[in-house]
């Protein structure tokens, strides 16, 4: 995972996620379109493409991202803090299925070239698109028109990443962060448990050593709450 600016070269990435990208220049939108046409996956959300670099509003949202996302946003409904809506999947998308809660903002949008993955379940815009997918060239662009519950985002991003050939460094519990770092001919796994409860990760077949204890490891290993392990791949 890398956090980059809008001046970054996107060609080295498989998936680019740009949530609530309020300010979008036309040159960057063109590079996003080129990225998608070349096989990349691009994800953006409500509140994206409202103004250019001079803060001048576009005539319609998501501005210059309209072509790549295949949607046009007519209006936006801002919900009160205690209000919720629902998004209803039209068909399963990986583990995304059934219904999910959403809130805060709900785009009232039209799917022009995009395929509708989910619709709203309530309010006067029930049945309107809430989440879309647009195939462009060899890649896909996704538009999330609301603020869904975390489970939906987890399922959606897992599916998009898997479709791009991006897999976790290690399989394990949610809330466990794993980073691989290499130096010359040595490789290390930094495993951080962000939960206060015990979590587990599964090591693939091979030889491993815990750099803090010197213990050799294999199979599934536990991590205490808020624990960290530095593991060398032997």
Number of helices: 3
- Total domains: 2
Note the quaternary state here.
single chain
CATH fold-level name of the largest domain: Rossmann fold
Strand content: 35-45%
What is the rounded Rg? 21 Å
Counting helices, strands and paired strands, the structural category is: mainly beta
Q: What's the short version?
A:
13% of the residues lie in helices and 41% in strands.
Describe this structure in words.
With 234 residues, this protein is mainly beta. The chain has two domains: 149 residues, Rossmann fold (3-Layer(aba) Sandwich), CATH 3.40.50; 63 residues, Golgi alpha-mannosidase II (Immunoglobulin-like). Helices cover 13% and strands 41% of the residues. It is built from three helices and 17 strands. Strands 1, 2, 3, 4, 5, 6, 7, 8 and 9 form a nine-stranded mixed sheet that branches. Strands 11-12-17-14-15 form a five-stranded antiparallel sheet, with no helix packed on it. Strand 6 and strand 7 form a beta hairpin. It is globular, with a radius of gyration of 21 Å. The two termini are 24 Å apart. InterPro entries: Beta_galactosidase_C (IPR013739), Beta_galactosidase_Trimer (IPR013738), Class_I_gatase-like (IPR029062), Glyco_hydro_42 (IPR003476), Glyco_hydro_b (IPR013780). This is Beta-galactosidase. Pfam families: Glyco_hydro_42C (PF08533), Glyco_hydro_42M (PF08532). It comes from marine sediment metagenome. One of its GO terms (biological process) is galactose metabolic process.
């Amino acid at each position: 995972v890398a956090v980059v600016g809008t001046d970054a070269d996107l060609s080295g990435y498989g998936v680019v996620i740009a949530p609530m990208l309020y300010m979008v220049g036309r040159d960057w939108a063109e590079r996003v379109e080129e990225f998608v046409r070349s096989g990349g996956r691009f994800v953006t959300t409500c509140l994206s493409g409202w103004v250019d670099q001079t803060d001048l509003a576009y005539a319609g949202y998501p501005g210059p991202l309209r072509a790549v996302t295949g949607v046009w946003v007519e209006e936006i409904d801002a919900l009160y803090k205690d209000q919720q809506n629902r998004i209803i999947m039209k068909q399963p998308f990986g583990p995304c299925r059934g219904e999910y809660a959403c809130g805060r903002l709900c785009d009232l949008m039209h799917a022009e070239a995009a395929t509708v993955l989910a619709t709203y379940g309530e309010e006067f815009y029930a049945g309107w698109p809430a989440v879309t997918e647009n195939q462009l060239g060899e890649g896909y662009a996704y538009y999330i028109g609301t603020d869904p519950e975390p489970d939906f985002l987890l399922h959606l991003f897992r599916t998009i990443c898997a479709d791009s050939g991006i897999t976790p460094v290690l399989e394990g519990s949610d809330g466990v962060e794993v980073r691989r770092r290499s130096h010359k001919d040595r490789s290390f796994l930094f495993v951080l448990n962000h939960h206060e409860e015990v979590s587990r990760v599964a090591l693939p077949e091979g030889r491993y050593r815990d750099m803090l204890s010197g213990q050799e490891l294999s199979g599934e290993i536990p991590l205490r709450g808020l624990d960290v392990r530095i593991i060398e791949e032997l």
